[in-house]
Known about the structure:
The protein is an alpha+beta fold. It has helices at about 5-10, 25-30, 35-50, 50-85, 140, and strands at about 90-95, 100-105, 110-115, 125, 135, 145-150, 165-170, 175.
Amino acid sequence: MDIPDRLAQYGHNELGGAGGIKWYTVLSYQLKDAINYILVAVTVLSFVQRDYITGSLILAITLFNTCLSVHQGYQAEQTMQALRGMSSPTACVIRNGEESVVSSRDVVPGDVLVIQEGDSIAADVRLFFVTNFEVNEALLTGESEHVSKKLDPLEKGDMPLGDRSNMAYSSTIASKGR
């Protein structure tokens, strides 16, 4: 399969949702959460039974929970917007046995990325050759320590993405090795 066919099948290497979502959309998702229905029902029952202190306390907890969840959801969306803007503009790939530089948008499954120290990684990749390779994943995890990457098989197939030492992720920075 050639590059145009892969682009047609998989699309461009871009994070989706370029428009982002608004805070009131996050609020509507939060209000539809089942736990909020339960808390509101308990609040109403408390007021019906004239237990105003318990009802008020549960209502306050519900409002606090909703506000906190909306804030966190909106912050997560803002982080995704920032990641969309920080993706690498180009990538060094090996196609048909030749090394070339392409737009990161045009990286497709099957491309072999050549990643060197200082490069912003253009796509999520499975590593199959590394030399003393470390990646700064602070944009994804918030952890400032660089992560050593290895080729060792994973202990479990269902490991969280952050624990997969044989993977590197888009928008992270190669901080050491290649």
